[in-house]
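Example record for the data management plan.
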Amino acid sequence: MPSNLRSTASGVRASLQNIGTLMSFAIFMTLIVIGSSAALAPSIRSALIGAGLTAQQADELLAIPPAFALFAAFLGYNPIATLAKMTGASIQPAIYAKITEPQFFASAIAPAMGLGFNYAYHLAAALALMAALLSYFRGREIFIE
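Corresponding structural encoding:
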């Protein structure tokens, strides 16, 4: 490659690498949300019942989209208090204090999020294996100067 084009090539390579990184992050976050969405409501419901709520009270508080739950947990926010206010649920003060602690929500969604991460990591492993096989079968490059 001519020396006057090396800086241009380096800039294009860096830009494409940044775009690829952002796209892979978006794809994997989507896989995590999709993979965990089916298990999210049962996971939160189980944690709420385990904390002392009745099944009916737990069902009232389960109006939370999976993406909201994921980002709430990443931000350290527990949306249960907001959901309790929105639904007007009558919850005993001791149980309310327990389920509105920040770590309660993170631990409540952990099983569902683990399933979503499992899907994303399995896809990443499959893609890495496919890339390794394609690289192996491509053969050796010979550079001619």
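Summary line stored alongside the record: Residues 16 and 118 are 27 Å apart (CA to CA).
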